[in-house]
Batch of 3 targets.
Target 1
Amino acid sequence: MALGLLGIDYESHVLPYDDEKTPVELAKKKMLPIFQWSQGDASNESLEIIKRLDEKNILKNEIVETPLFKEEVEELLAKIGSQVHSLCMPYWIWTPEFNEKSREYFQTKKEVKRGPFHKLIQNRHEFLDKLELILTDLEQELTPFYKSETMTIADIAIASHLWGMYIFPEFQFSPKVHQYLQEIRKQCHFDYHEDFWKEKI
């Protein structure tokens, strides 16, 4: 999203989820995304990558160090992530970036923390109810972006956590949240690995 907003050309290289060797070699630990700089070094901290790329500070990156982000936004992201991951992981594993081996690896790893995927699907209404409450509160803060008239790094963080819900078959965003996400998509020229997926489908 940030690369698109900043007009920086890029190409997706989607690693198989069971590839532990490549991330460790590039950035010393298994964590994505990884951005490889022209100088040869690599970073895997999203907010640091965006700050380094955003030379004109279009996204107001300084707010990452304020109570607004450290307390409010990070708490919101944790609440969203908990529900979205429980709802969507059983569906994400069938997207084109997974093959049989990486799908099995991902499911085995995630079920240790969240429980069997079939149980997550059975309990989906519990997660959906909690998410609806979170999004109802979020709507009150959209003016039209998160407590802002212009897009900031907070919106990139929030949208990236919410975007996966578009894959969930029994869920629809409210018109206001949908409009918010689609405006971010428009400004960011966001295509979610479309360049990679076209090669796979």
Note: Residues 61-188 form a domain with the Glutathione S-transferase Yfyf (Class Pi); Chain A, domain 2 fold (CATH 1.20.1050).
Target 2
Amino acid sequence: MIAASIWSLILPAVEMAEAQGKISWLPAAVGFALGVIFLIFINKLAQKLEEKENGKSLNMLTFSVTLHNIPEGMAVGVCFAGFLAGNSGIALLEAIVLAIGIAIQNIPEGAIISMPLKMEGMSKKKAFLKGVLSGLVEPIAAMITILLINIVVPILPYLLAFAAGAMIFVVVEELVPEMHEGEKSMLGVTGVTIGFIVMMVLDIVLG
């Protein structure tokens, strides 16, 4: 997600801003900051709702993961919208690589929901279905973004950076802390290194 944010979102945002005659770094900086702020707001909202639910933590976990999936779906949609626009510097394979990377990252997110539900006594099928449904918002968000391409294109540099900021927030706030839990945190570091290199190479070669 880190590599995809840089090569598939931030760098195209800078290049597109230059092509549009804007200050190259400004849309990237503003959009990135707004993406982080949006996810902070989402986190605060989820925490408040969890307090009101008086312990219905699994429902809130599902809600929280589902909310986080919205900007990830937007990221994919923005990339494909950029490709369809034809002047953003985003290649089709680059958008596909981002979609694949996010899809891979969704596997453990779905497990985060399904496994506790199964432990609480829910059947395997229902637990699996809930995990899958939590990610259903991603393709929906992506499709809505693509359908709004005429509105999206003028502000595409901001949206690309917004999606990058949202994704980096998820990495820093959730994935990295979880990576260091347990005795084998170095495996997490190794995984991040390998994942970053793979996504970087794919983005550069296919983009």
Note: The radius of gyration is 18 Å.
Target 3
Amino acid sequence: MNNAVEARRLLRAHRYGALSTLSKKLSGYPFGSITPYMVDHDGSLVILISDLAEHTKNIEYDPRVSLITHNQSSPEIQMQGRVTLAGNAQRLTDQQTQVARYLRHFPEAEINLSLPGFIFYRIEPVAIRYIGGVGRIHWVRMENYAIARGAAFARQEDALIENINAHQADQIRRQILQYHGIEAPDACVIGLDCDGMTVRSGDKILRLDFTEPLTDPLTFGQLPALSCHTI
């Protein structure tokens, strides 16, 4: 598996990152904040932020941003995988296109969406730095990170999720328990993309990666081999 796919999977495996913007108030000094994010089907990041927030004012001042997230499974942080995505943040012109998918991943955001001033932005990546561990340090080739069939996955995701939850939920629960010892009696899929599935069980969110990325959503039939970890 190439480092571009590994970087993309690491981004998908987390829900929060440290967002750095260029401060309008502080004349361009970097300003950091913790921000939930969702990886879209094309590999860009979608964030929901308040127009009162400092980072939103900064983005409107200068759209250049970066976001870093990391594997938090060990206190030895320098030994863990991490990825930094640099890109340009732009307000989405059609705010409604992201609502249903975002709420599947962040149901707690429903109250924010009921308030005025919360806005979806997309971060289009221009460079990615991936550290997979000691000695595994790469600038990702962006042509390898790009997802050719991202739009097709976006169109098919809802139907695929409905079908999996209706017909393959028991298989997913068995695999999670068999291979990873995690009880997930009420597990249901909330997201599907070329790299894997996101599953909610109670208050846990699990990421199940396919051993190889899917190239076409229409080829999805029986569940491919999975690896699983808690987000």
Note: The helical segments are 3-12, 54-61, 99-105, 110-113, 142-145, 150-167, 169-180.
